[in-house]
Design goal:
This protein is an alpha/beta fold. The chain has 2 domains: about 120 residues; about 200 residues, Rossmann fold (3-Layer(aba) Sandwich). The strands form 2 sheets. Strands 6-5-4-7-8-10-9 form a 7-stranded mixed beta sheet, with helices on both faces. A 3-stranded antiparallel beta sheet has the order 1-3-2, sandwiched between helices. The longest helix is centred in the N-terminal third of the chain and has 20 residues. It is elongated and about 70 Å long. About 5% of the residues have low confidence. The chain binds S-adenosylmethionine. S-adenosylmethionine binds next to helix 7. Keywords: Transferase. This is FAM86 N-terminal domain-containing protein. One of its GO terms (molecular function) is transferase activity. Pfam families: FAM86, Methyltransf_16. InterPro entries: FAM86_N, Methyltransf_16, SAM-dependent_MTases_sf.
């Protein structure tokens, strides 16, 4: 995780260049990247923009030295060179040279070295008063969407949920947050960023958990050497398969907030998912008594007294925020029906609490297709 101010030059052009770099390093489709490059050059692929791409994007990708970065860079170079040539822009000699190098037979077997991994930098842009700040999360994922039972890819719902968490940080700050079907771990990294008091990432697939742990290490949130850290992990990764997890295990996590992105899609899993949700969202005894006795102030950031904070935390009923792309209406209605039967209320809050658009360069991300549901228990 790193934060960066926007690139130099005039602010508008600096922001366009920052979007161009973000799109390249997030491995966005070549058409989007070349279109950003053209915009940054005021409508043409100038030598200045080509030089920017070479210095800030291509050299970074070359340092990754793996098959997918090579393939991606080769594709962008091809598109960039052909677009520049066809619109009469001269092409930097260095770009031709690098491209020639990329299309020559590979001497080393890069795919053996790094498998089918993609290394993407997901950059969140927001304003900090004095300009645009760029918060970058490096993520290792797979180029095969079915790998790790789909958990090794970044899905649009997790981008949406990340934007939501960054837009409403007080909902998560100082809270124990648990994610179901956490995939690559992006949402957990964001929860840590907004100062959740504890983050528990769970998934039912073991290879997904392995990749998730690698991402936490890349983002310095987990050290593989537990002797050095004394066994303390900032973000925990847990194997939690909805079908087999015991009631005792599930309730032992005792979260304030449950999150999930793109986990409502398999009709066979739905009864198990609803069981897990209803156990995690069960009102606490202290919540029920505090409905009458509590001071009513929600726990939030900036609370100094940990004891007071803990008592406030426990006086609030747990809630879940689930982001979903509804691909099959029947499956989603089946989820809602099961949730109702388990005394869970699911409210669509997409319009009521819209997240800020923090990924403006990501043309491949269809945020309009994502809905956000708040789920809570109707039991008292
Ligand atoms: C479509 S992926 C979404 C991953 C991530 N949340 C995202 O949005 O990028 C679904 C995730 O749910 C996990 N999952 C699916 N069925 C599960 C089950 N029965 N128990 C636990 N996890 C499950 C998968 O391993 C995978 O990581």
């Amino acid at each position: 995780m790193e934060e960066a101010q926007e690139e130099g030059g005039n602010p508008a052009q600096a922001l366009e260049l920052a979007y161009l770099k973000a799109a390249f390093l997030a491995m966005e489709p070549a058409d989007f990247v070349v279109s950003f490059a053209r915009q940054s050059g005021g409508g043409s692929l100038t030598e200045g923009v080509q030089n920017f791409i070479m210095e800030n994007c291509i050299k970074y990708m070359m340092s990754k030295n793996c098959a997918s970065s090579r393939g991606y860079t080769k594709n962008i170079l091809k598109k960039l060179i052909s677009s520049a040539e066809s619109s009469g822009n001269s092409v930097l000699e260095d770009l031709y040279e690098i491209y020639a190098n990329y299309i020559s037979p590979i001497k080393e077997d890069f795919s053996l070295k790094h498998g089918t991994r993609n290394f993407k930098n997901i950059s969140f842009f927001y304003s900090n008063g004095s300009g645009s700040v760029n918060f970058v999360v490096p993520i290792q994922c797979s180029s095969n969407i079915l790998e790790g039972d789909t958990g090794c890819s970044i899905w649009p719902s997790s981008l949406f949920l990340s934007e939501f968490i960054l837009s409403y940080p007080n909902l998560f700050c100082n809270k124990v947050c648990l994610e179901l079907g956490a995939g690559v771990g992006l949402v957990g990294i964001i929860l840590n960023k907004v100062k959740a008091s504890k983050v528990i990432l769970t998934d039912g697939d073991l290879s997904t958990l392995e990749n998730m742990q690698a991402n936490l290490e890349i983002n310095h949130l987990r050290n593989s050497n537990e002797v050095i850290t004394g066994g303390i992990e900032v973000v925990e990764c847990k194997h939690l398969l909805w079908e087999v997890a015991s009631e005792m295990e599930i309730t032992s996590y005792d979260p304030d907030i449950v999150v999930g992105a793109d986990i409502i899609y398999d009709p066979l899993c739905l009864p198990h998912l609803v069981r897990v949700l209803s156990l995690l969202l069960k009102p606490r005894r202290s919540h029920i008594s505090n409905l009458h006795e509590g001071d009513g102030t929600p726990a939030g950031c900036g609370e100094e007294d940990p004891v007071r904070n803990e008592s406030r935390r426990r006086s609030e009923a747990p809630a879940a925020y689930i982001a979903v792309v509804i691909r099959n209406v029947e499956t989603f209605h089946c989820f809602l029906e099961l949730a109702r039967g388990a005394h869970l209320a699911a409210v669509d809050i997409t319009e009521e609490m819209p997240p800020s658009q923090l990924l403006p360069y990501m043309g491949s991300y269809d945020r309009a297709g994502v809905r956000l549901y708040q789920i809570s228990s109707t039991r008292s």
